[in-house]
Design brief:
Keywords: ATP-binding, Membrane, Nucleotide-binding, Transmembrane, Transmembrane helix. It is found in: Membrane. The protein is of the alpha/beta class. It folds into three domains: about 1-270, 3-Layer(aba) Sandwich (Rossmann fold), CATH 3.40.50; about 330-475, abc type-2 transporter like fold (3-Layer(aba) Sandwich); about 490-690, no CATH class. It contains 25 helices and 14 strands. α10 (about 300-320) runs parallel beside α20 (about 535-565). The two termini are about 30 Å apart.
Length: about 700
């Protein structure tokens, strides 16, 4: 019977781009079929359709009598060996590890695997089997890829440009092996090549042009029909023919093949007797998948370093970059009451300021007010005039300036009997005693200086009240503020820390998942693994297990960082906190899995991860309350994977809330929802399209 039959194959990528146009192709069992054509004529597309990686728009493909499509790939993947145009190998594995990996996913006997690996390495002159693939030359990589296609001794070998980059002696050696194999073991070979001369050694040649086979026959018959002595001249003449639809295509099935021990393959039962039935979730297969991923990770020190340092650097930068009070801010001072600041300095160092205890009369109070402005908060820069201070602020030399009127002490003395009416800061500014001009372009610093100046005046005012033997509580507002929950030493860190933890843990899961899965799909090893019969369920099971290990590692790192960098007592259950941390990582892994399965572009994948990170960071309520958002944005924020977990983490750490509080159990339910939804969608996507 015929090994492969293609009938009426049509494949269009758009209305103008017809890759395959009603193509018919026949490959006999135990023969070598050379497919020749210019780049872009559809050779690789045809091979991917034969393998079930690509779906025809019309037509049928049969392998050993069984129809093949994306939905119905080959029933017997162990019969097929495939070498793609790109090497599609794991760069971090050695030659020996690569062959061992493919042998194990093909579920080969270990003794046979070692024998076959040695034979193929000798054949292809792969001498240093302990060398990593990424250290090999281009030609050596193609030889390893060829070896991986032959390791399980397949009966159907599909080779896409296998001899590119190889020297003529090695090409001759490979062709000799293929010819001998077709005769001795009835192996069938379909090969695409740019070397037209070497195609003369095949049993049948097919020339493709514009998605069609313009001829399909043995090299000898082509020579006779066109009156030429070599294929190169024959194909040159054929390509010049104006009538491309001319009937020049006798079937290769009419060619008599001299075969040894031809095995008639007619139905499933006979095929099952030829190969071992593949086992799902087979131990050696899962072990090979796991070992491949672990070797890749182990031999990428940059990735390991990044995985470890990402949370460390993020948290350290947050601790030292946020929450601290601004120091050393330059503040301009124009004191019209005491123009010579040396007088203020001498006056402050005297035994006491001049106070008439009977009349409660003061002198040079501006000196004492300025003394309350601490140098660590604001560095005072003195100017002689308002204009000079204004120019300094405009030039960026100060963050603003304040002016003190010449009658500062006099006004206070005049109002000494009405303290209860003048203790508010605004009463003094109404009298133009102090005027403040701040640079509002930096809101945080402006607000900080504003608060510090008010606090300084409150301290000054209380001193004056006490020195006049008055109750300094006259300065207080008639309101008492009590704290329900303890305040941390730094309010900004207390507010932002849970949001940071949520973001970074989610990002760690996303990045690790993207790195692992996208790399496999882009390199092509994903497709080769599936073509070997490994199911997407097996791949996902191993990937999720490895990501779970990474997620647990990230949580442990975070717990250690929290203990080392934050001297904060956790009021709630530490284990509950760890559960939310772990769920954040797993949710990130599932999001990364979803993104990786829907694009093979690293730039798009990384952009998607960045988008998730900054969207969650800006809207999670960790750095600015969600109550400050428009109403419609609050609904969006509420369903983000970091918003409720941020509140839950903060409430566990500071308030000691348990799982009965809605922010805590809400965080757990939300993260479980993300995990289930993104994992389910990813599985459904793989069922619909499992190849990259």
């Amino acid at each position: 019977m015929n090994c492969i039959e293609v009938r009426g194959a049509r494949k269009d990528y758009d209305s103008k781009n017809h890759v395959l146009s009603g193509l018919n192709l026949t490959i006999q069992t135990g023969s070598i079929y050379s497919l020749i054509g210019a780049s872009g004529c559809g050779k690789t597309t045809l091979l991917t359709c034969i393998l079930g990686m690509n779906q025809l728009d019309d037509g049928t493909i049969k392998i050993l009598g069984h129809e093949v499509s994306v939905d119905k790939p080959s029933k017997f993947p162990q019969l097929i060996g495939y070498m793609p145009q790109q090497t599609s190998l794991v760069p971090e594995l050695t030659v020996n590890e690569t062959l061992s990996y493919f042998g194990n996913i093909y579920q080969m006997n270990q003794v046979l695997l070692k024998q076959q690996a040695k034979f193929i390495c000798d054949l292809l002159e792969l001498n240093d089997v302990n060398k990593q693939v990424n250290q090999l030359s281009g030609g050596e990589k193609r030889r390893v890829s060829f070896a991986a296609a032959l390791i399980h001794n397949p009966k159907i070998v599909i080779l896409d440009e296998p001899t590119v980059g190889l020297d003529s002696i090695l090409r001759e050696k490979i062709w000799t092996f293929l010819i001998d194999s077709t005769k001795s073991s009835n192996m069938s070979v379909i090969i695409t090549t740019h070397y037209i001369a070497e195609a003369e050694k095949s049993n049948c040649c097919g020339l493709m042009k514009n998605g069609k086979l313009i001829i399909e026959d043995s090299p000898q018959n082509i020579f006779k029909s066109l009156g030429v002595s070599n294929l190169e001249e024959a194909f040159y003449r054929l390509c010049l023919l104006k009538n491309e639809d001319a009937d020049l295509q006798p079937s290769c099935s009419s060619i008599k093949m001299q075969q040894i021990d031809q095995i008639p393959l007619a139905d499933d039962e006979k095929l099952k007797n030829f190969v071992n039935t593949r086992k799902s979730f087979y131990g050696p297969t899962l072990k090979a998948l796991f070992r491949k991923e672990m070797q890749r990770i182990r031999r990428q020190p940059g990735e390991i370093t990044f995985t470890i340092l990402l949370p460390v650097v993020q948290v350290i930068c947050f601790v030292f970059g946020m929450g601290g009070n601004p120091m050393g801010l330059r503040l301009g001072i124009v004191n019209y009451e005491v123009t010579d600041q040396t007088i203020c300095s001498e006056y402050l160092h005297s035994t006491n300021y001049e106070l008439n205890s009977t009349s409660c009369s003061f002198q040079r109070l501006s000196c004492y007010f300025l003394n309350e402005i601490q140098d660590e908060s604001a560095i005072k820069v003195y100017y002689d005039s308002l204009e000079e201070a204004y120019r300094g602020a405009k030039a960026g030399k100060t963050f603003g300036f304040l002016t003190i009127s010449s009658n500062f002490t006099g006004v206070i003395n005049e109002r000494k009997n009405d303290w209860q009416y003048i203790t508010e800061y605004e009463n003094f500014t109404d009298a133009n005693l102090i005027q403040i001009h701040l640079d509002e372009s930096d809101y945080t610093i402006s607000l900080f200086l504003h608060i510090r100046l008010i606090k300084a005046f409150e301290r000054f005012n209380k001193k004056v009240l006490r020195d006049c033997d008055l109750n300094d509580k006259l300065e207080d507002i008639p309101m008492e503020i009590n704290t329900l929950y303890r305040r941390l030493e730094d309010d900004n860190i207390a507010t932002g820390m849970p949001a940071l933890f949520s973001q970074v843990l989610l990002l760690c899961g996303i990045l690790f998942s993207i790195s692992s899965i996208s790399q496999s799909r882009i390199e092509g090893i994903w497709n080769r693994t599936i073509l070997a019969g490994v199911t997407t369920s097996e791949i996902l099971a191993v990937q999720l297990f490895i990501q779970l290990i990474n997620d647990i590692f990230q949580v442990v790192v975070f717990k250690l960082l929290f203990k080392v960098l934050f001297d904060i007592k956790i009021e709630g259950n530490d284990l509950l906190l760890g559960v939310i941390y772990l769920l954040l990582c797993i949710a990130g892994s599932c999001i990364g899995l979803f993104v990786s399965l829907h694009t093979n572009n690293f730039a798009v994948v990384n952009s998607a991860g960045t988008l998730v990170f900054f969207t969650c960071g800006g809207l999670c309520g960790g750095f600015w309350p969600i109550e400050g958002q428009p109403q419609f944005m609050r609904y969006i924020s509420a369903i983000l994977p970091t918003t409720i977990p941020t509140a839950g983490i903060r409430n566990i750490i500071i308030k000691g809330f348990t799982i009965t509080h809605y922010t805590v159990y809400g965080a757990i339910l939300l993260l479980f929802g993300y995990i289930i939804i993104f994992l389910a969608v990813s599985i459904l996507s793989l069922r619909k399209r499992k190849f990259a």
